[in-house]
Input
Amino acid sequence: MKLLADTSASLIFLGVLLLILYVALLLVALAYNVVRDARRRSTSIPFAIFAFLLAFVPPFLGALIYLVIRPPRTLAEERSLALEQQILEEPVSGTPETRPCPTCGRDIEEDFVICPYCRTQFARRCTVCERRLRLGWPVCPYCATEVGAHALSAAPPRAPAPH
Ligand SMILES: [Zn+2]
Ligand SMILES: [Zn+2]
Output
């Protein structure tokens, strides 16, 4: 009878021991994942330590709190987002706007005053503010400088259109 009681007592003890071991293992696994997640979201060491402590105190609930307060994006996500932004912004400053030359049809930049391929002049620059003026304008509309009433005859002769 005494032997049977002993056996059941040690069985209960073993059960409790296994349960504690199981819970402890779960906590360690949880803390490991929390710290790994914290490292992926921040390079800050104090933040990783804070996340590690939160994983244990209070048990299990701390990990839930961490889920709420952690940085919303991982560093990898942050990087790809920044890269995406850069790609989106690049065409504005990188490639200049182009249009076809009215005479030869080749791509020329919007800001050109003369076609570098066929030498057709279709605009000129204001001598004061350097902005692009149409050949027919006798006055600069940006700074009101008189640029000559006979703009078309003052400009170099246009190259004859190919026939
Ligand atoms: Zn041209
Ligand atoms: Zn001007």
